[in-house]
Write a structure and sequence with these properties.
- The two termini are about 20 Å apart.
- Helix 5 runs antiparallel to helix 7.
- It is built from 7 helices and 3 strands, in the order E-E-H-H-H-H-E-H-H-H.
- The chain has a 3-stranded antiparallel beta sheet with strand order 1-2-3.
- Helix content is about 60%, strand content about 5%.
- A hairpin with a 7-residue loop joins strand 1 and strand 2.
- The chain is mainly alpha-helical.
Length: about 180
């Protein structure tokens, strides 16, 4: 199972040691997350609008997982949320894609021992969090049903996804704890 090895000081970073199956799984998850959140280019988009990152067609997603990643900014004011979304959603999507690309590049370059330091650390934390949010939305995980989901039978189709959710949670918690030490 994946483990973190701190390398002295926080500035020296840490190594994430993976098994090959874990590396392949993370590679697959980066590709899936990139495909899921990447902004689709608008046809005949105004160049100024594209330059400043405004998305005039931004709207809340009908997909609960994507809506979890890109929530409304104002729960009680739909118009203000739409306006805020127009100015922020494209950048937020792009940041999530960059995080996943950073993780993928580290997995490709470093192999089974991933050196985490500097800007790689927030990218990894962001990617792990985003992936967990998508899985959590797909599994409809709430504080009230986590124990129930943890006891799923192996033949339940959700069991593997819940196991993956738990593993990603472990990675995220381990990384945060290592940073706080």
């Amino acid at each position: 199972m994946a483990m973190l090895r701190p390398l002295g000081t926080r500035e020296q970073g840490m190594d994430l040691v993976l098994e090959e199956v874990e590396r392949e799984l993370l590679m697959s998850l980066t590709a899936q997350l990139i495909d899921f959140v990447a902004s689709e280019p608008a046809e005949a988009e105004d160049p100024l609008v594209a330059l400043v990152g405004i998305d005039p067609d931004a709207a809340p997603s009908e997909d609960p997982a994507l809506h979890r990643l890109l929530p409304d900014a104002f729960r009680d004011d739909e118009q203000a949320s739409l306006e805020f979304r127009r100015f922020t959603e494209r950048d937020l999507r792009d940041a999530k894609v960059r995080n996943a690309e950073t993780v993928r590049a580290a997995l490709e370059r470093d192999g089974l021992v991933i050196h985490l330091e500097g800007e790689r650390i927030p990218a990894w934390l962001g990617f792990l969090n985003d992936t967990r949010l998508v899985l959590g939305a797909r599994l409809d995980i709430t504080e009230d049903n986590q124990d129930e989901l943890a006891d799923l039978d192996d033949d339940d189709p959700r069991a593997a996804l819940y196991g993956l959710y738990g593993w990603l949670t472990y990675l995220q918690e381990t990384l945060v704890q290592a940073l706080m030490a």
